[in-house]
Design goal:
Blueprint lengths: L11 E9 L1 H11 L9 H6 L9 H16 L5 E8 L11 E13 L4 E10 L2 E12 L2
Antiparallel strand pairs: 1-3, 2-5, 3-4, 4-5
C-alpha cells in the first residue's frame, strides 16, 4: 500500500479481472448457503423473467473489493464498503463472465488518515455495481 503522502485523488491503486464460471457459482452457493436456482439453472432463471443464470450479488460485491484488500494489505483496514447493484452479472454456461474492477482514489482525508476508494465494476462493458465505494484507513 502507498502511504497517504504518495496518493492523489484520481490515482488508480488496483485493477483486477475476475473470471466467473458456473462452477464458481456452485462453490459460492455451497459457501454461502444461497442455493436459489436462478444461480445455476437457466430454465428457472428464464421462468422468472431473467435472461439467464445470474451470479450472486454478494459474490460480485466480494470480488469487487478484493483488489482493494490486496492493495491495502489488511482487511481490517476496510472501514466501510457500500455498493448499489445496478445490473446483474449473467454467467453463460460455456463462456462464463468476466468482472473487471478498477479501484481509484476518490477522496483523501489527511487528518483522519483515510481514503475513499471508488470502484468501477463492469461486466461485458456494462457497469454492474454503482456508487461502489470503500473507505480505508491509511494509518
Amino acid at each position: 500500500m502507498s502511504g497517504l503522502v504518495d496518493l492523489k485523488v484520481g490515482d488508480v491503486v488496483a485493477e483486477a479481472d475476475f473470471p466467473l464460471t458456473r462452477d464458481s457459482l456452485v462453490r459460492y452457493a455451497g459457501a454461502s448457503g444461497d442455493f436459489n436456482p436462478i444461480h445455476y439453472r437457466d430454465d428457472v432463471a428464464r421462468s422468472v423473467g431473467l435472461p439467464g443464470v445470474l451470479a450472486h450479488g454478494m459474490l460480485t460485491m466480494g470480488v469487487a473489493i478484493q483488489p482493494v484488500i490486496d492493495w491495502i494489505g489488511d482487511p481490517a483496514k476496510v472501514l466501510d464498503y457500500q455498493v448499489r447493484f445496478t445490473r446483474p452479472v449473467l454467467v453463460d454456461a460455456t463462456d462464463g463472465a468476466r468482472v473487471l474492477v478498477v479501484a481509484r482514489v476518490g477522496v483523501l482525508d489527511a487528518e483522519a488518515q483515510t481514503a475513499r476508494i471508488d470502484l468501477t465494476v463492469t461486466c461485458g462493458g456494462e457497469t454492474v455495481l454503482g456508487k461502489a465505494q470503500v473507505r480505508v484507513s491509511l494509518a
